[in-house]
Write a structure and sequence with these properties.
alpha+beta, five-stranded antiparallel β-sheet, about 20% helix, membrane, AP5M1, transport, MHD
C-alpha cells in the first residue's frame, strides 16, 4: 500500500475529551510548505482573517491549540464531524458554510492567537477509530488553500457538480487527500489492533473420501475435513497485539490506551520525513526486524516496495474466495426480499524470487459483478465474455487480491418465515418455518446454522417449545436456536426446520418502561452521529448497531407491540458454507500460470458466511429502510 503523491505536515490523535494523545510533525515537509508560500509572494493581507489570503503561520500550531480548535469546531458544527450542510446556524468561515458533506471528513481548523485573527489549517483528514480522532494534515499548494478559503466566504448555498470552483473539483486535483486517508486508516488500525493479515483458508488434510463420504453424503451429513486458516510466518517481533501491555490497562475516559512506541516506530519506517513509502504494517515491521533481503536479484528485475525480502522454502500459492451474504427476507407480497453478496479473493504466494502470476477469473457473466477493486500490484485486463485475467507480482504474506460486490445468483441458503405476536405484556408466541440449502448440491456444505431472536428491551425468563431439529438455549436478552452444529455439516440435500413456541419475560416497572423508551438529548444524538461510521468500520453487526440506536432515540411504543417496533422486529441468521460461492465468481487453480515457470501447486478454497442476514417478523411492520440497499 503506497501513499504516492502525498506528503504529511503533521499527525494528531485526539481523545473524546479533546486532549492530544499523540502528535508528530515533519519539519522537512513544513519547510516545503513555507517555501511554496514564499514563492507565491507571501500569504496576503492581515485583514483577511482565516479566509483566502490569510497570513501563513510561522509554525504549526501547538498541541493545546489544535485541541482547542477541534473542541471549538465540535461546538460550532454540533458534532466532531458536523453535518456538512449549511443551516440557519451555520456561520461564515465554518465548514458547514461550504454546504458539502465531504467536510465531515476533510475539515478545517481555525487556530486562535492572542492579539491577532489567528489562522486556518486545511485540509485536515478526520477519521474516528476506537474512540480516538485521527487528524492528518497533508501538504497542499497555496492555490488550493486559497480556493477553499474563497468557498468559506461564498454567499450562495451549495454548488453544481459541473462548477469548477466547488470543493469536489478542488479535492480531485489533490492526490494527497487519498494518501492522507490511507495514512489515517492504517493509524486507526494500529490504535484498534486491527492489523491482522487477511485470512486465507486451506484444507487441513485430504478428504476422508471413499465409502465414508458416500455413506454420510447420502444422509446429508458431511464427514470431510474442515478448512483451516493458512499459517502466517511471524517476524521476530510479534505484530499480533500492537497495543502491547496497554491492553491490560483499564479504559481511560472510555477509550483503550494504545502503544505509542509501536505507532512511533511504524511512522518512522512507513513515512520517513513525512512522505509515505509503504503503509503495510507487516512489511514495515519485517523490515525493522529482519532488514531488506540480501539475496542477489537478476539484473533485469527490480524489487518492488511491497516485497522487501524474498521467500525461501517450499513453493505453493493459495487462493481463498471469501463471500458474505447480506439479506432481508420479508416473506410478504408487498415487500421484495433483498439479497447482496460482498466478497474478496485473498492470496498467499510462497514463491521464491520475483515471479509474475497470471490468474483467470471465471463466471463473470453469471456473477454479474457490480463493483470490483484490486490490490495495487495487480494489472487487470478488460473483461471479455465470461473471463478476466489478473497479472500480478505477489507481495509477502496474506493479502487481498480483489474486493467485489455482486447479487446472490442462487436461492437464499436459509429461507422461510418468522412470526412473533404478543399474547400478553410479558408473554409472546412465535413460529419459525424454514428451509435450509434448497437447491444446493455437493460440494456445498453448511458447516453450521443458528437463529437468534433478540429482545434488547426485555429480560427473558423462560421459553416453551420443541424445534423439529437442533437445540435451543437462551441468554438474558435472546433465544438461540442452533439448527446445524459445528462438526456435523449439512451437504447433498435440503432440510425443513420448524420451531413453534412461547417466550416469557420478567415483569418490568412502569418507571423503567417510561424511562427506557425516551428519546435522548440532542447532545447524545450528536455523539451517536459521530459513532455511526466508527461502528461500521470496526465491523459492528447490524443488531448491535440497531440496539445502540434504540437505546438512544426510540419513542414509546404501544402495549400491543412492545417488542415489535420495526428497529428490532427480526430474527438474525448466522451460518457458514464451504465448497462454493454464492455469486458464481470462481478461480480455476489449474489455469494459474507462474513465470518463470516453477513447480508450485495452486490450492483454492471457497467459503460463504452470513453478514446482516435478517428474517423480519411477518406480523409486524416492515422497515425496508433499515437494511441499506448497498452494502
Amino acid at each position: 500500500m503506497s501513499g504516492g503523491g502525498c506528503s504529511v505536515r503533521a499527525i494528531w490523535i485526539l481523545t473524546p475529551h479533546d486532549t492530544v494523545a499523540f502528535s508528530r510533525r515533519f519539519a522537512v515537509v513544513e519547510k516545503r510548505w513555507r517555501a511554496s508560500w514564499e514563492a507565491e509572494g507571501g500569504g496576503g493581507g492581515e485583514g483577511d482573517g482565516w479566509a483566502a489570503g490569510a497570513p501563513t503561520p510561522s509554525q504549526l500550531p501547538a498541541d493545546h491549540e489544535v485541541a482547542a480548535a477541534f473542541a471549538e469546531r465540535r461546538k460550532r458544527e454540533g458534532t466532531a464531524r458536523g453535518s456538512g450542510i449549511r443551516t440557519s446556524l451555520s456561520s461564515v468561515g465554518s465548514d458547514s458554510w461550504v454546504d458539502d458533506p465531504i467536510t465531515r471528513h476533510v475539515i478545517s481548523l481555525h487556530i486562535a492567537k492572542e492579539g491577532s485573527d489567528g489562522f486556518m489549517i486545511w485540509p485536515v483528514v478526520l477519521q474516528k477509530r476506537g474512540g480516538y480522532y485521527v487528524l492528518v494534515l497533508p501538504l497542499v499548494d497555496p492555490q488550493s488553500f486559497r480556493a477553499y478559503g474563497n468557498l468559506l466566504k461564498r454567499s450562495d448555498c451549495g454548488s453544481s457538480d459541473k462548477e469548477n470552483g466547488n470543493l469536489s473539483s478542488i479535492l480531485l486535483n489533490l492526490p494527497c487527500i487519498t494518501g492522507a486517508f490511507m495514512v489515517a486508516h492504517v493509524i486507526g488500525d494500529i490504535i484498534t489492533g486491527d492489523i491482522a493479515e487477511p485470512e486465507v483458508i486451506v484444507n487441513s488434510g485430504p478428504s476422508v473420501g471413499g465409502l465414508l463420504d458416500s455413506l454420510t453424503g447420502s444422509i446429508g451429513i458431511s464427514a470431510r475435513s474442515k478448512p483451516t486458516a493458512a499459517p502466517v510466518a511471524a517476524p521476530a517481533a510479534s505484530v499480533s497485539s500492537p497495543v502491547g501491555a496497554a491492553q491490560s490497562e483499564s479504559l481511560k475516559g472510555g477509550v483503550r490506551p494504545f502503544d505509542k512506541d509501536i505507532l512511533r516506530n511504524f511512522i518512522i519506517g512507513a513515512m520517513p520525513f513525512g512522505t509515505p513509502q509503504d503503509l503495510n504494517y507487516a512489511n514495515v515491521n519485517s523490515i525493522r526486524t529482519t532488514g531488506y533481503s540480501g539475496d542477489p536479484l537478476p539484473t533485469d528485475q527490480k524489487q518492488p516496495a511491497w516485497k522487501p525480502y524474498l521467500y525461501k522454502g517450499r513453493q505453493r500459492i493459495l487462493f481463498s474466495n471469501l463471500e458474505t451474504i447480506h439479506a432481508a427476507l420479508y416473506d410478504r407480497d408487498d415487500v421484495s426480499d433483498f439479497l447482496s453478496v460482498s466478497g474478496q479473493v485473498t492470496c498467499r504466494a510462497e514463491l521464491e524470487g520475483l515471479p509474475d502470476v497470471s490468474l483467470p477469473l471465471t463466471g463473470l457473466k453469471t456473477a454479474r459483478v457490480e463493483v470490483s477493486s484490486f490490490h495495487h500490484c495487480v494489472q487487470a485486463s478488460e473483461p471479455t465474455d465470461n473471463k478476466q485475467t489478473l497479472v500480478f507480482q505477489p507481495p509477502l504474506g496474506n493479502f487481498v487480491l480483489m474486493h467485489y460486490q455482486a447479487p446472490c445468483n442462487i436461492a437464499p441458503p436459509v429461507k422461510g418465515f418468522y412470526q412473533l405476536s404478543m399474547v400478553s405484556e410479558n408473554e409472546g408466541a412465535f413460529l419459525f418455518k424454514l428451509t435450509l440449502m434448497e437447491g444446493y448440491k455437493s460440494p456445498f456444505i453448511m458447516d453450521f446454522c443458528m437463529i437468534t431472536m433478540p429482545f434488547p428491551r426485555r429480560r427473558v425468563a423462560s421459553y416453551d417449545g420443541n424445534p423439529s431439529i437442533g437445540t435451543v438455549s437462551m441468554t438474558e436478552h435472546s433465544i438461540e436456536w442452533r439448527i446445524v452444529s459445528s462438526g456435523r455439516g449439512l451437504s447433498g440435500r435440503s432440510i425443513e426446520a420448524t420451531f413453534p413456541g412461547t417466550v416469557r419475560f420478567l415483569p418490568r416497572t412502569a418507571q423503567r418502561t417510561n424511562s427506557s423508551f425516551r428519546s435522548v438529548s440532542s447532545a447524545a444524538y450528536a455523539e451517536d452521529s459521530d459513532s455511526e461510521q466508527d461502528n461500521v468500520k470496526n465491523g459492528a453487526s447490524l443488531d448491535d448497531y440497531i440496539m445502540e440506536k434504540i437505546n438512544k432515540d426510540l419513542q414509546a411504543v404501544d402495549l400491543e407491540e412492545p417488542l415489535s417496533w420495526h428497529a428490532y422486529n427480526y430474527a438474525k441468521v448466522s451460518f457458514k458454507i464451504t465448497g462454493g460461492t454464492l455469486s458464481g465468481l470462481t478461480i480455476d487453480p489449474k489455469s494459474v500460470n507462474i513465470y518463470p515457470s516453477v513447480k508450485a501447486p495452486a490450492e483454492y478454497s471457497m467459503q460463504a458466511s452470513s453478514g446482516d442476514y435478517i428474517l423480519w417478523n411477518t406480523l409486524g411492520k416492515c422497515p425496508t429502510a433499515v437494511l441499506p440497499r448497498e452494502i
